[in-house]
Design a protein that fits this description.
about 350 residues; 2 domains; alpha/beta; Rossmann fold; about 30% strand; 6-stranded parallel β-sheet
């Protein structure tokens, strides 16, 4: 293909722009040319567009790492995909040979590259991805649901570390897209109590609609006291989906409970006595992006087990992608999609 396409790019620090770009062509035998069906806007995109940006991205790079597409053309060595297939894309491209890749810790790869960050992503009409990044999804799955595969795969990667059991109580700190996906996942797993901490009234209501039994505003209510009152001894599991609430998580979890640190904040400096963790035998898990969880994410989306459509609050055309970015920057809505 040689025609021009529309793409949403990182223009310069703090500046997003729509630009015409040449439709990409296959460069390697394992490349696949994709026609993008839908692309989610993520908090990472907003961080990239901060000034200064905490994430190094080259000016002119096409954003978008949460996307679904259809296959247009495949490289000479590609056998698992063919034109017409509908796919979701794992944006994390790993080397496969470093110590971490060999240990199965692909998300810890020493040479990891990311579509939409270090390589051109899916906020465009077309995209090139390596065949190994693609996971086939049934064509009848609507694009707006398929586009949730990447964040869902990340949530599954974290949820599998803490194994919520039927009857357990879960506390989720933060009711953004990730926190709400955890709420849906825990409800499907049989959690008896799902408590969500959220300061936004609008997001609090969405949390209730997505399975939360109790929503607490920590600015006006004593979160830890309420969790202890509702559960008797503290939450069985706590998920910090914000990235700055480790102290709260340790106070709210029961002895022998599990904490998942999912949100990322390099400036957070929690002050926690190690003796509390040691004496309480609290298990602490870090979780970063996805590892082997895309197939399960696809299965959950195809099965309709989770009410994912409830998370989608805004949908924009590609030529209005700047509005999608600004909506996310203002903290409005939950899951924001762009559809070429």
């Amino acid at each position: 293909m040689s025609r021009a396409m529309l793409a949403g790019v990182f223009e310069s620090p703090g500046v997003f722009a729509l630009r015409e770009r040449a439709t990409p062509a296959l460069q390697n035998d394992d490349d696949v040319l994709l026609r993008v069906r839908a692309c989610g806007i993520c908090g990472t995109d907003v961080h990239i567009l901060a000034n200064p940006s905490p994430i190094p991205v080259q000016p002119g790079s096409i954003l978008g790492h949460e996307y679904t597409a259809s296959v247009v053309q495949v490289g000479a060595r590609v056998s698992q995909s063919q034109p017409g297939d509908c796919v979701v894309v794992d944006p994390s491209i790993t080397c496969g040979v470093c110590e971490y890749c060999r240990r199965g810790l692909l998300n810890c790869c020493l040479a990891i590259a990311t579509l939409g960050v270090t390589r051109d992503g899916g906020l465009a009409e077309f995209n090139i991805a390596p065949a190994r990044a693609l996971h086939k999804i049934r064509a009848e799955v609507p694009a707006h649901l398929a586009a949730l595969a990447e964040p869902l795969a990340c949530v599954i990667n974290g949820a599998e570390k803490i194994h919520v059991q039927p009857g357990e109580a879960a506390l989720i700190l933060g009711a953004g897209p990730i926190g709400l996906l955890f709420a849906q996942f825990f409800r499907a797993a049989g959690a008896a109590q799902i408590i969500v901490s959220e300061i936004s009234d609008a997001r609090a209501q969405i949390a209730r609609d997505n399975g939360a039994h109790l929503v607490v505003n920590p600015q006006t209510q004593d979160l830890v006291a309420l969790v202890k009152r509702e559960t008797g001894i503290g939450a069985d599991v706590v998920v910090d989906a914000v990235g700055a609430l480790f102290d709260v998580a340790v106070q709210a979890v029961r002895r022998g409970g599990r904490i998942l640190l999912f949100g990322f904040n390099s400036h957070a400096a929690p002050k926690i006595s190690q003796s509390i963790i040691t004496r309480g035998e609290i298990a602490i898990h870090g979780s970063y992006i996805a590892k082997h969880s895309f197939p399960r994410a696809v299965q959950l989306i195809e099965s309709g087990t989770l009410p994912l459509a409830k998370l989608i609050t805004h949908r924009f055309a590609l030529n209005d992608a700047a509005s999608a970015i600004e909506t996310m920057r203002r903290g409005e809505g939950i899951k924001i999609l762009v559809e070429p």
